[in-house]
Amino acid sequence: MVDQAFRAAADERPSVPASEKDANMNDILAVRTSESPQRAASPGEANETLLSVRDATIQFPAPKGRKGAVVTAVKNVSIDIRRAEKFVILGPSGCGKSTLLTAMGGFIPLSGGAIELEGRPVRKPSMQTVMVFQDFFQLLPWKTVRANVEFALRQRWPRMPRGERRERAEHFVDLVGLSPQLNQYPHTLSGGQKQRCAIARAFSVSPEVLLMDEPFGALDAINRERMQGELNRIWEEGRPTIVFVTHDVTEAVHLGHRIMVMTEGPGQIRRLLDNPHVGMLPYDTQGQESVAELREMLIPAG
Length: 302
Ligand SMILES: Nc1ncnc2c1ncn2[C@@H]1O[C@H](COP(=O)(O)OP(=O)(O)OP(=O)(O)O)[C@@H](O)[C@H]1O
Known about the structure:
By secondary structure, the chain is α/β, with parallel strands linked by helices. It is built from nine helices and ten strands. Helix 4 (145-156) packs across helix 5 and helix 8 packs across helix 9 (285-298). The chain is globular and about 55 Å long. The two termini are 34 Å apart. The relative contact order is 0.19. Residues 60, 71, 73, 91, 93-99, 247, 265 line the site of adenosine-5'-triphosphate.
């Protein structure tokens, strides 16, 4: 019998039929879910929906071609993101991951369907949602690490007393291990340190939802692995809801309580999986097997 967590994932209908390969993946994750004694319970198991995507379709004008022609980036995606979960969107390059994430933040409009945050339509960016990007240039170059975080805090809570703002900024800088660089400017930081600062800034404003678009994509392998572990650790503080986009299978399995696998473009849901291996790689051999299976699932047919 599959366990509760797996049934919850199966409730979300993928928008494309599962292949035989996918069915095997189900078996693997379902069995592991019930067998794994150390399994970290998904905090989203309480099933409280925070961000709801209903039948979302996103189209862009085709770059060239006849007038009115469109590119469909995302097609009929429906998904409920639960409060306090780390939800990973995984898929091949160009399948619409970033587009879907950007729409969740209200940065681009839907062509069809709806996105709601706590039951209210998401139509434009709001303070409830913060995005962290892959590139290293999201910090204000003329401000120090501390001042970058303080700046965000001032935007979020304009009336917060100066001392409290400073203290809060230092707390989050410390949380990401950047205290020694507190007074440094972005151009003096490594790529990993810049991402740490961006993450400190994002966490410091206590967003309802943190949207992370391949934030470690530009890091070397060692720093990337380190940052994944850090993210799991930092998430424990406050447990924000995180939607994390990646095309890296190991990263997905290490970070996501649930993993949504997308098809090649136009992006649809291929599978939605509960992941019992979150935070356990690289020492969890079953997790490594799941990584291999997922990787195979992403290899294009033919
Ligand atoms: N502003 C735009 N105008 C036209 N087409 C766009 C636009 N943004 C994205 N697209 C197209 O939508 C599709 C999905 O792009 P998207 O960036 O969401 O994919 P992705 O899965 O995030 O890819 P990657 O992993 O390479 O970042 C692609 O075909 C892309 O060319």
